[in-house]
Amino acid sequence: MTDTKKTNRRDFLFTATYTLGAIGVGATIWPFIDQMNPDKSVQALATTEVDITNIEPGKSITVLWRGKPVFLKRRTPEEIAEARSVSLNELKDPEKDEDRVKKGNDEWLVMLGVCTHLGCVPLADKGDYNGWFCPCHGSHYDVSGRIRKGPAPINMEIPKYEFVDNNTIKIG
Fold first, then answer.
1. pLDDT at 56
2. Which of the residue ranges 9-23, 38-52, 111-125 would you say has the lowest mean pLDDT?
3. Which positions are catalytic?
4. What gap in Å lies between CA 101 and CA 92, rounded to an integer?
5. What is the tens place of the pLDDT at every residue in 19-44?
6. Which of 77, 83, 89, 144 has the fewest beta carbons under 10 Å from its own?
């Protein structure tokens, strides 16, 4: 009977020791795991709403979302026609203009304002195609944000966005 008692007590001590050790290891490594989460200021910008009532046709604005610039351009009918007249064979990264905008809101182009070459911020209404031009390395984008000339490999990225109403765009 004493052997059974000793075995049960020994098993309990081993189990208790392993449990406390596991809790100690977890408490020690948790701060290292937690520090890999995004900063609270970035999490707060998971979505942003932009008032677009004062943007005239042909003009664009830049807003900040998740620490990155986002270009919002209200395109004129001429700019839309120019973007849609481009043959996909001429494009380095073929993508239709219609696929880069929301159906029914073709005049609004929303895209990350980051050059896809090395992450610079291109200048609006510049370059050989009257879209965006990255002066750092010479990438030229058209009025649809598609790469036309230069070292950038792909078109500027279109973030997830939606129209809340006729005057507000929600990005993210």
1. 92
2. 38-52
3. 137
4. 19
5. 999 999 989 998 888 888 776 665 55
6. 89
**Could you tell me the residue ranges of all domains in the chain?**
1-37, 41-171
What are the φ and ψ backbone dihedral angles of 9, each rounded to 5 degrees? -70, -40
Q: Where in 8-165 does DSSP place strands (E)?
A: 48-51, 60-65, 68-74, 108-112, 123-126, 131-134, 139-141, 147-149, 161-165
List phi, psi (to 5°) of 120.
Answer: -75, 170
Superfamily of domain 41-171: Rieske [2Fe-2S] iron-sulphur domain (2.102.10.10)
Query: Which residue type sits at 128?
Result: D
Instruction: Answer for the pair 48, 69: CB distance below 8 angstroms, yes or no.
Output: no
Exposure pattern of 76-93 as b/e (b: 16+ CB <10 Å)?
eeebbebbeebeeeebee
pTM of the model: 0.71
